[in-house]
Design goal:
Length: 100
């Protein structure tokens, strides 16, 4: 697992995230996560790249919890179990792509 925090001085937006994925040769899919939503017992089949565009998500990997905020990127190796939830009062948007 690798977390890359957004440290750029410019605010993140959808176009920037899409260009970052494109630069890696990846085709991301957007996911909208409603307030109060929770996704449990997920498992990656390939390496999965996740980047947050809006809101905050709490991820859980093997009992370790951490928050991802706009611009933050998470790289999960194949066969990694994970869960995430949106406990904020706003929708979150993330982009996800798999790479071989």
């Amino acid at each position: 697992m690798k977390i890359t925090r957004w440290t750029a001085e410019i605010p993140v937006n959808k176009d920037i995230i899409l260009k970052l994925f494109e630069a890696e040769g990846l085709e991301p899919r957007p996911f909208q996560i409603k307030s109060g939503s929770r996704l449990v017992n997920q498992r990656t089949h390939l390496t999965e790249i996740i980047q947050i565009a809006e809101g905050e998500l709490i991820f859980n990997l093997s009992g370790t919890q951490f928050v991802l905020r706009p611009g933050d990127k998470l790289e999960l190796p194949a066969n990694t179990a994970y869960s995430f939830s949106n406990i904020k009062n706003e929708e979150s948007v993330m982009y996800s792509a798999q790479k071989i």
